[in-house]
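Deliverable D5.2: sample structural annotation.
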Amino acid sequence: LFELSFLLAIIVAALASARMKTIHTIMLLAVSSLVCYVVESTNIKAGLLEYLQKGGGNDVTLFTISGWILMMVVILQLSDFLAAWLKRLQIFQEIESWRLLPFLAVVVLFILFAYWEGFLDIGNIRVWGMYAIMAGLGLFYFWKHPIEWNASLVAVSVAMGGLMELLGWLAGFWTYLPDEALSYKTLPVFFALSWAMNSMAVHGLAYVLRVDLGDRERRHLLPEIQEKARREAVPSHKRSDPHSGG
């Protein structure tokens, strides 16, 4: 089931990438890889999770990084659809200024579940310092974007990230809190919520580097293709030199 989901993610990511401008694709790949390495290596060293690799290794691999990249592209594409749907429904019309509400909600839940599931006792200062920086990037990014997009990014990140964590855990690719006394029989909600933090970091860092992954119009190639098609559709005599007479 995990392999099938991974294949579907590759297909969706390929279709989404084909519609994106090169600069946005490159930025998403680069930032996702960087954030992945920092987050995964920090959590591994703190003992929050363990990758069950052949030979007994427990490191960030190319498989891990590629999985993150696929997830971020899929999350971006699905967030586009959800944000457009929410905008049509106008359910946030009366609270458009509450753009930070999704941020506050997921951060509060993230902290609460970290406490309830015992991660606050396990994680060290590096872990929580890392997540504090990620939250700071998310705060800055969400302040600059509408509530529909912010809510969509949070919801899709938690849903898709939680599904991926569950399938990978059930398939035996990784486990959480390797210590026998603290091992979990079910998927920790903390790690599902952490995907909202991951998306905040990726989108926030890209925004700081002046590439707005949340701006659908600037990110997509389609508007440029449509404009080019319209120009080519104009009759040749209408594009002729206005000073040529006739």
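Annotation notes: The longest strand covers residues 49-51. The two ends are 68 Å apart (CA to CA).
The annotation will be released with the project's public dataset once the embargo ends.
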